[in-house]
Design a protein that fits this description.
With 352 residues, this protein is an all-alpha fold. It has two domains: 35 residues, no CATH class; 313 residues, Glycosyltransferase (Alpha/alpha barrel), CATH 1.50.10.20. The protein contains 15 helices and two strands. Strands 1-2 form a two-stranded antiparallel sheet. It is globular and about 45 Å long. The protein starts with a helix and ends in an 11-residue tail after the last helix. This is Squalene cyclase C-terminal domain-containing protein. Keywords: Signal. InterPro entries: Terpenoid_cyclase/PrenylTrfase.
Length: 352
């Protein structure tokens, strides 16, 4: 039973208010998370404080070299939502509000959230759908809510039109990229689409169904998802992301394809210690693999999370950022903070 059930019981006079509140607190994901190692939250807040200090006045964050502003803004804003802040409440409300304004301004007439001279604009578009749809569900200002609905509706339409003939997505739309597609951008789009659907934005079922079939066709005999439908070898990072994508698309946890991919990841992904460097895109991998492990329940999560959290905290810089990787500290810090805070349960897209 959910916390809302007991709150409704109290409101109807069927349960004393004090008893209902005690049960709600006991059931709260955040209350449960706070029973864990307090250093996890301290580390995450330190990271978020660093992100807040790095936000530009116009509301955006950026990667190394001033790149990927749309994607970095959505990832950083999403990490702050995981802490519990919204556009109007919480420690990072101003930062989130500025990020929303920036992304709304970046919405183009054709529905793309981003700019055409970004040669990886589908990443930013997908992450923006994810972030803005989570905000849309909590937005209290009627005018801003209408604007979010308009932007997200057009973003979903653009996403469908950008899908390739094979059912995937590339770094740019099918039209701009000569129908090229690959696995990681496909995952980003599907998760963004599911987040939109969860928030009440209409999403054509056939678009998601074609994407799931694309992932199926990309799966190699060893259970790993290849770089693209054309081949490229099984990739642990894309496979982990694909499982999250399947769960988000509505596929059950016991779906045969998801289980096949999961077995591959369990053999291929080593999360801690020196072995964690044996594959590339470590942060990207665990950004999605953490979502998968959390969705699988406490038995899996309570084994996975303490180790991955320890590894993440071990690499944190004194100023709160994480600096590994070539994309830049905004990227790694936003992803690590999301992992550390995911079990707060504030965002519907990450809930069990």
């Amino acid at each position: 039973m959910t916390a809302n059930f007991f709150q409704n019981m109290a409101g109807r006079g069927l349960l004393p208010v004090c008893a209902a509140m005690a049960i709600v607190m006991a059931l709260s994901p955040c209350a449960w998370a706070q029973k864990k190692d307090p250093q996890v939250r301290i580390s995450a807040l330190k990271g978020l404080d660093w992100l807040a200090s790095e936000q530009h006045r116009q509301g955006y964050w950026e990667a190394n070299g001033g790149q990927y502003r749309v994607a970095m803004t959505a990832l950083a804003g999403n990490a702050m939502l995981c802490e519990g802040s919204t556009t109007t409440r919480g420690k990072y409300s101003k930062n989130i509000s500025l990020a929303v304004d920036y992304l709304l301004e970046m919405s183009q007439p054709n529905g793309l959230i981003g700019y055409k001279n970004d040669y990886h604009y589908t990443y930013g578009h997908g992450f923006s759908m994810l972030f803005l749809s989570q905000v849309f569900g909590e937005e209290e200002d009627a005018r801003r809510r209408d604007r979010l609905k308009e932007v997200l509706t057009k973003a979903v339409q653009f996403c469908g039109e950008a899908q390739t003939a094979a059912g995937g997505w590339g770094y740019v739309s099918a039209k701009d990229g000569n129908d090229f597609d690959e696995g990681s951008t496909c995952v980003t789009q599907v998760q963004g689409l599911r987040a939109c659907r969860n928030s009440g934005i209409p999403v054509p079922k056939e678009v998601v169904d074609r994407a799931v079939e694309y992932i199926n066709k990309c799966t190699a005999a060893d259970g790993g998802v290849q770089y693209s439908i054309r081949g490229g070898g099984s990739r642990p990072p894309i496979t982990a992301a694909a499982i999250a994508c399947l769960f988000n698309s509505g596929e059950a946890n016991d779906d045969a394809l998801a289980q096949k991919l999961l077995k591959y990841c369990e053999k291929s992904i080593v999360g801690t210690g020196n072995q964690s460097q044996f594959f590339g895109h470590w942060h990207y991998t665990h950004y999605y693999y953490a979502q998968v492990q959390y969705r699988l329940g406490d038995e899996k999560w309570n084994k996975y999370f303490p180790e991955i959290a320890k590894e993440i905290m071990r690499k944190q810089s004194a100023n709160g950022a994480w600096k590994e990787g070539h994309v830049g500290p905004v990227y790694t810090t936003a992803m690590n903070c999301t992992i550390l805070l995911i079990e707060n349960g504030y965002l519907p897209i990450y809930q069990r």
